[in-house]
Amino acid sequence: MSNTTADLESLLMHRSLTDPELLEAAAAAENFRILPDAAVIKIGGQSVIDRGRAALYPLVDEIVAARKAHKMLIGTGAGTRARHLYSIAAGLNLPTGVLAQLGASVADQNAAMLGQLLAKHGISMVDGAGLSAVPLYLAEVNAVVFSGMPPYKLWMRPAAEGVIPPYRTDAGCYLLAEQFGCRAMIFVKDEKGLYTANPKTDKNATFIPKISVDEMKAKGLQDSILEFPVLDLIKNATHVREVQVVNGLVPGNLTRALAGEHVGTIITAN
């Protein structure tokens, strides 16, 4: 089957949007990476930001130094305050979409604080329509801050069980990296990376330097370090088919990851 633009347009005009031939033609179209030289960094809410200045100040200094050589989109997690809101809202029997709005408000607060810490270095926070200006910020100062929660709000797809929003800040940051066609997605946490069990509670937990999505699921580790839906997003991705998890409490780890070093855990699509 020919996959020229004219053929694809004809299919789009005359076929269902779920037509197999149309989907095949659309998938065969040439990919375009919007920000191929940029990396998305997700700063954990509970793991980093909630720790305050002891954790955040050194990371801010590292980001400022790294932006001399790297273009960065810096997303923020929500953390403990969001979990408290989820607890109250779930107890009130409010739906997933409302919880998504509440979680987004906390990620927004964290982005605002991080943006203020970076303001004197010319690094700004953007949100909503401001995301369209990201290329300009990257061209001028090599970095920009955004809230990691995807803007689904009341349109958040409910989870299979319960009312906790399944797509939270890990997913939001990853989706931005994939849609922009970025070169890397780095999750900054408070652990070395992925372990066979929770290293905070199990002294026998073993560090895993590299693993595939399928291997994680087979080992029952699918919800141990990243939000569960992120694994399927990686598996189905076009551009960002691996992510890296590093300990941001160790100075230099983020810089090494940005330089392409294998620090922490790398999770691959296959």
Automatic annotation (TrEMBL):
At the top level of its lineage, which domain of life is listed?
Bacteria
What CDD domains does the database record attribute to this sequence?
Answer: AAK_UMPK-MosAB (cd04255)
For this chain, one GO molecular function annotation is: molybdenum ion binding
UniProt feature coiled coil, ranges: none
Q: What is the protein name for this chain?
A: Uridine kinase
Ranges of residues in domain Aspartate/glutamate/uridylate kinase: 39-218
Q: Source species, please?
A: Rhodoblastus sphagnicola
Q: Which InterPro entries match?
A: AceGlu_kinase-like_sf (IPR036393), Asp/Glu/Uridylate_kinase (IPR001048), MoSto_subunit_alpha/beta (IPR030669)
Sorted keywords for this record are: Kinase, Transferase
Any Pfam family from its record, for instance, is AA_kinase
Gene Ontology cellular component annotations, sorted alphabetically:
cytoplasm
